[in-house]
Amino acid sequence: MIQILYFVEPLRSALLSHLCQREFCLSCELGFLFHMLDTAEGLPCQAANFLRAFRTIPEASAHGLIINDLNESKKKENLPTLVQSWTRFMLQQLNGETADVNDHMSEENGAETTSVMTSLFGAKLFSCNSCRCRRETCQETTTLLTQLSYPAEKSTTLLPFLDILQRSLSVKQQIPAWCENCKRFTIMNQTKFIKTLPDILVLNCGDKKQEIEFLKSQLQMCESNDGVKPLPNFSVIQKKQCRYGSLCKRTDCRYYHEHKNKNTQDSHQSCESWMPSTFKIKLTGGEVIVEKSDNSKENKEQPDLIENNVETGEYELFAVVSVITDLQENGKDNIVSCIRVGPIGHMRHKGGAAYQWYLFNDFTIIPITNQEAYYLNHEWKLPCVLYYTRKDMNSRHNLEVLNPVGQQVFREDVSLAARSGQSHITFTPLTIEEEELPGGQLVAMDAEFVTLNQEEAEIRSDGTRSTIRPSQMSVARISCVRGDGPLEGVPFIDDYISTQEQVVDYLTKFSGIQPGDLDASISSKHLTTLKATYQKLRFLIDTGVTFVGHGLKNDFRVINLVVPPAQVLDTVYLFQLPNKRMVSLRFLAWHF
Prior knowledge:
GO terms for molecular function: metal ion binding; nucleic acid binding; poly(A)-specific ribonuclease activity. It catalyses: Exonucleolytic cleavage of poly(A) to 5'-AMP. The chain has about 600 residues and is α+β, with helices and mostly antiparallel strands. Helices cover about 30% and strands about 25% of the residues. Helix 2 packs across helix 3 and helix 3 (about 25-40) runs antiparallel to helix 4 (about 50-55). The radius of gyration is 28 Å and the shape is globular.
C-alpha cells in the first residue's frame, strides 16, 4: 500500500522535499524510503526505519495496526478492516505532520499555506443537523476520504456504482443527537455534502459484515451476466511458453500453458467490472451529481472547470487495494494492490512514456491488463479501498523535488547525552571547507549493532536446525573516517545511536558497546538519533563519496540505506578468491 503513495507524483515530490526535526516522523521516513526506491534500480527496499517510527505512534496501536507476530493472531485479523484503518490512519497522520511544518513556515513568512495532504486528498464537507424545533447546527470540515454508503436493506437488483457514490457524497439521514434548544437527545435530520472536489478521491468500500455482504451480492449479480455487456478477453501478458506444452505435469509450473489459461480467460470475459474506470462529478448549489464520463478524445484534452458556480471534475481509476481469499485454507488471505503507473513513473525508472497497470503482491510486481485490474469476484477478490484521481492532477501541482538533506546536517549535530561534552568527543567534525566533499573521496565506515530479540530456532529429530524467527538487530554506533586530505585517518562521525527499545544483548565482545552507552540519562558518549546520523550518511551518498569497509552490505541493510554499487569498496569481496569463502576482518588485519 506504500507503493500507491509512491506513485502519486505530487505526494512523492512533496515527501521527498520534506524534512523536520521530529525524531519519529512518518513523512520523513516515507521521503527517505521513496528516495531509496528511486536509487535502488529495481532492487527490493526494506521499510525497517519506517516501521520503527510507525511502532512508536500511539494512534497506530489504537487503530489495531500493530499486529502480533504469532500466526494465530494473524488468522483472526479482519483484513478489510486492517486495510481501511491503515488508509485512514496514514492520511490523517501525514496530514498532521505536513500541516505542522506548513504552520511553522506560515509564522515565518506571514503567508497562509495548505498541507499537501489537504490540497491532494482534502474536500470541504458541509454538515447540517436540523431538529424538529427548527434549530439548525451547521459546520464545515475537511475530509480526506469517503466511506461508501450502501442501502440499509438488502438489494435484489444490481445498483450502479455511480448511484452509490452519489449518495455517499451527498448524505441525507436521521441520527440521534443533542439539541441545545430542547435540552435533550432527539432524532435530527442530517444533511452532508461535499462543497469542493479533491484531486484524489479515496473510497473505503466498507468492512462491516452487512457492508461486505451487500458488496458480495452486487458482485455476484454482476457476474450472473443479466444484461451486462461482456468485457473483451484478457490479453495474455507475454510469457515464455512451456516447452512441454499440454504434456507438462507440474502443477506449479511458472511458464505459460495455453490449455490451462483458457479457463481463466473464460471466467473473466463474462463480467463487466462493478467499478467504472472513469466518471464525472459536478457540484452545483449544494447538489452532487455523479455521471458517466465522456471518454472522447476532445473531452480528455479539456481541463476541469468551474463555471457558473458549477465545479466539474473528471476522475479515473488509479489504484485498487483488494483482499484475496484462499478458498481452500482459512487464514491464508492476502492483500494485493493494482496500480496504474503513468508516463512520469515509467520515465523515472528508464521506461517508456505510457500508462500500464501493475499488480503488487509483496515483493512480486508484474504487469497486468486493464481488464484484470478492474476484475472483481465475490468469492475470492473483494475491493477494500479505491483511489480515483483527477485526469489533470499532475498539472495542478508542483512536481519539483528539492533535496532537503544538505550541509546543515553536520552543523545541527547535538548530543542527547546529559553527561557528554567536548572532552568526550572522539572525532573531529567536518570543517566548512571539507563539507564541499568532491565526488569519489574515500570514507572508511564501520557500524556496530545490538540485539533487540534473540533468535528463535528448533532442532529437528534428525539433528538439523531450523530458524523460526531470526534475531532483530539495531544499529548502535556508526563511525566514518576521512580517507583523503590533510586530516586523513581522522574520524568525522562517531555517533552512538539512542534507542527506546529494550536491548537483549549488547554484543560487547564484538561491538564494544556497554550497558548505559545508549541511555541519554547516563551515557557519556556522543549520543544522537538514528534519523540524525542517517541524514549524514545520506548527504555523503548524495555527494558521491566512496565508502570503504568490511561487510558494508550488511551494515547498510540494517541502517536501511541503499548505496549505489559504484560507491562501495567492500573488503569482503575485494580480497575474496574465486569460489572460496569470505575472509574475516580479523584475518585481514593479521595478514596485512
